[in-house]
Amino acid sequence: MAGQRLMVGFDGTELNDDLIHLVDTVLVGGIILFSRNISSPDQVKTLCESLQKYAHSCGQPPLFVAIDQEGGEVSRLKKPFTQFPGNPAMKGEKDAEYFAEITGIELAQIGVNMNMAPVLDIACKGSIMAERSFGHDSARVSGLGLKVIEHLQKKGIMAVAKHFPGIGKTTLDSHLDIPFLDITMANLAEVDLLPFKAAIARDVSGIMLSHVLYRQIDSQWPASLSPCFARKILRDEMKFEQVNDLIHQIKVDIDLARGILEE
């Protein structure tokens, strides 16, 4: 059960001893691909297929195989995969639909079944997310984000909304620092949570939590480690209970497959 809750990265471009150990001994539930794991479309397709075949041979459920393919500056798949300018460049819903349809097709072709997108952060001036967000207006972020979710999932790709409950007001990179926000729950509910509520209503497959410390709500733990955010707010209050059944009808204990992913 512990292993099934893990989504892990690895070094290499093929099924190697490290991956074999992660699948048959650690019993991980998912793998995430980074640029270091990708050299060509044929190579990454072979990697994904061999991973799933090995998991099946071990009696394991199908793996979540994820990637960050937002378009723009966060795109793990380089040419010859289709390149997009990124969320800030989108002019409207047609752009969002086109991005999601093409990306969904290309991910499915190589055996990736989960995209860590869309970004639903509402970026303020100076935000760390300024080059990755749909913008500073909650209606625009929600509208374009929902189109990405809808059209990715129509193509059989699990969409993951991020970074709950919203990091658009932060200016520090949480991969390098521990940002904090002095913001109340009422403030979050008024603006930042709106796109996530819309995504839940649209049956988004997963939600990724942020590493930001929201000191007025949980003074001890960042959202990604906080029972307050992961259980009380997201599960109990916002009623996020989506269990993905888009890929292979994965039959796993409900608590293992609900799709809250921690970055």
The CATH architecture can be named as: Alpha-Beta Barrel
Helix content: 25-40%
Mean pLDDT: 90
Q: Provide the CATH topology.
A: TIM Barrel
Summarize the structure.
The protein is an alpha/beta fold and 263 residues long. The protein contains 7 helices and 11 strands.
Descriptive notes:
The chain has a single domain (68-262), classed as Glycoside hydrolase, family 3, N-terminal domain (TIM Barrel). Residues 243-263 have low confidence and may be disordered. The chain has a seven-stranded parallel beta sheet, covered by helices on one side. The longest helix has 18 residues, at 93-110. It is α/β, with parallel strands linked by helices and 263 residues long. The protein is built from seven helices and eleven strands. The radius of gyration is 18 Å and the shape is globular. 32% of the residues lie in helices and 13% in strands. Helix 3 (93-110) runs parallel beside helix 4.
Using brief descriptors, characterize the structure shown.
263 residues; TIM Barrel; two-stranded antiparallel ribbon; 7 helices; 11 strands; 32% helix; 13% strand; disordered C terminus
